[in-house]
Design goal:
242 residues, globular, Rossmann fold, 38% helix, six-stranded mixed β-sheet, alpha/beta
Length: 242
């Protein structure tokens, strides 16, 4: 095989690989994430940014999975402003973004935090003196998120699911008593609350991958159906029906 034929074969493989990668990219579900809403009295949900923080967490989780085309909606105004600036003639033509090439989302994810519980119980002895406390704590947090998957072609709700997560920890506590402490979601990262939130985000992303990327008859969907059935039975068992 001479050099010319060899180069032709190599370029043919490269071209085929590019086309194949583009085909796989085109097959990825196009998904956008809306801001989370809150139907609880969770103390960590303060201010107007918590819903956006959870939105960012889910966007990052979905993007890291490499199985979705994640469409940015939170910063859409900034993207449109950049395109308008490019069309104004104030930006060099070769660097200006193209207008009319925004990727549309086939699905939008809407999520509502519908339940949150946090319990801290003291274990063993402890003491407090002059505002300094030492003791043992066992903390547990539970969170439930109601998920809706909206088909943008029809406006119909394509999927609904309630995702739950629980986290607990037990550790020696040493703290200062300075009254009420305000905080944000970032300060909860290493607590049972933060771990439960993160667990819920991961569970949502894995469920969406199972539902939209893998087969509806796959083993993962059977596992989620079993979880849903167990959740419903547990909920029914916690109330008394006449």
């Amino acid at each position: 095989m001479n050099k010319r034929i060899l180069m032709t074969v190599i370029f043919s493989f490269i071209f085929a690989g590019v086309l194949l990668s583009e085909c796989f990219a085109a097959d990825k579900p196009r998904i956008g994430v809306l801001r989370f809403t809150n139907n609880t009295h969770a103390a960590w949900w303060r201010g107007g940014t918590t819903g956006e923080n959870l939105q960012d967490m889910l966007i990052a989780e979905l993007a890291s999975m490499k199985t979705f085309t994640v469409v940015e909606r939170k910063e859409l105004d900034a993207v449109l402003s950049e395109q308008k600036l490019g069309a104004s003639g104030l930006v060099r033509k070769e660097t200006a973004p193209d207008i009319g090439r925004l990727t549309g989302a086939r699905y939008l994810v809407a999520a509502t935090v519908s339940a949150f519980e946090e319990d801290t119980a003291k274990q063993g002895g402890g003491f407090s003196f002059m505002g300094v406390s030492v003791g043992g704590d066992k903390a547990k947090a539970y969170i439930a998120v109601d998920l809706k998957l909206i088909d943008t072609n029809t406006g119909e709700i394509a999927e609904t699911r309630t995702v739950e997560a629980t986290s607990s920890s037990s550790a020696t506590r040493f703290g200062l008593n300075h009254g009420y402490f305000s905080g944000n979601l970032g300060e909860k990262a290493k607590t049972p609350t933060g771990k439960a939130i993160r667990g819920c985000i991961v569970e949502i992303s894995e469920y969406l991958e199972c539902s939209l990327v893998k087969s509806k008859n796959s083993d993962c969907m059977k596992e989620y159906e079993a979880k849903e059935s167990k959740r419903r039975q547990k909920t029914k068992g916690s109330i008394e029906l006449e």
